Fold:
Amino acid sequence: MTFEETYLNDNILDALYDMRFDEMTPIQERCIPEILDGYDLIGVAQTGTGKTAAYLLPILSMLDDGGYPKDAVNCIVMAPTRELAQQIDQAMQGFGYYLNGISSVAVYGGNDGSRFDQEMRGLKMGADVIIATPGRLLSHIRMGYVDLSRLSFFVLDEADRMLDMGFSDDILSIAKLLPKEHQTIMFSATMPDKIQQLAKTLLNDPVEVKIAVSKPAEKIQQSAYVCYEPQKLGIVRHLFKAGELERVIIFSGKKDKVKDITRELRRMNINCAPMHSDLSQAERDDVMYRFKSGQVSVLVATDIVARGIDIDDILCVINYDVPHDAEDYVHRIGRTARAQRDGIAITFVSDRDMRYFSDIERFLERDIPKTPLPEGLGDAPEYHVSSPRKSTRGRGGRRRGGKGGNASNSGNGNGSKGRNRRHRGRGNRKNTNNSKTSQNQ
Structure:
């Protein structure tokens, strides 16, 4: 299905044409018509599926068509991290290039005073779209000049990450300030009980759209070391002594391990930097800038960068710890082999994490090759495959919501309730013979 087949307005379609976006991704095809029809929606899809465009495009199209107050905040997009908020803001600038005076402001922590003042002016004037992290937006709200009483759209992006990071109370505090009549859109990579409960609290009879988790790219060469916990640093030393490893992310589940790994690499004169929650926002920004620009070769990080960070040239991902969920494994190793490049993913499987790794192998429907330990590290534990655990997420067989996400597959976008569209049919647009492919935002 192409964007031309939707009721997105001409200004949005012009921007998409110039950006060489034509065909929609599955999440866009199933969400855009439902959002245009005014439904609350919960979308379950992983990073890289195009979900940013799935909610921004219909919202911007409706705002551009008019009928919304010009002196009020019309839309809030909540994001768990500053990095994701910045990416959403960049997408907003591209999609909104031809729009008639649609204003936006990004609101996130860790800035200097001048940035805070700029955010304050945008909020006071009633920017159409606010892209914000929860804590920073609450800081402005508590100062008394943020009016959300006429808001029309409330979007939660990566809602599961926001709850993992402890933002549940902040989200609910913001939601209490919203008018009764507004449209709520929630996106999450996973659907645990706490997300289902949040959806029941915030959404009104939502459409559910669920896109199956993709398997890792075929270009990723996956392997694993079966080891005891004390042997992991020895494997790290071996990997970096064996070759010129650059553009590497090492993931650990705990910030203390991130600090230990960073110290070890620096003893080896490896150009590395840590990324974890103990760093200030300014320090995190500096680390990401230096890593993206190539000034840092190795990033040692918690899952703070497992999702939502768009870096195309990562050559290797090392899982120092096995993630406890198959979807998290896919997110982590999906940082490599992007933009048609090859990539390497190496996982250290301790005796305590074998059951999680066997869950991942079952999800991938393949055995990941096991590499023998380097000489001098001693014997490895014997790898054993555990029986399936009922609670493993990321599998098929999820219960589909009442309306499901298939209502829009025909391309006509008519919801099951038969709600009248906000848009009228458009006239003929320019024709093109170019074959353009949509890029994920």
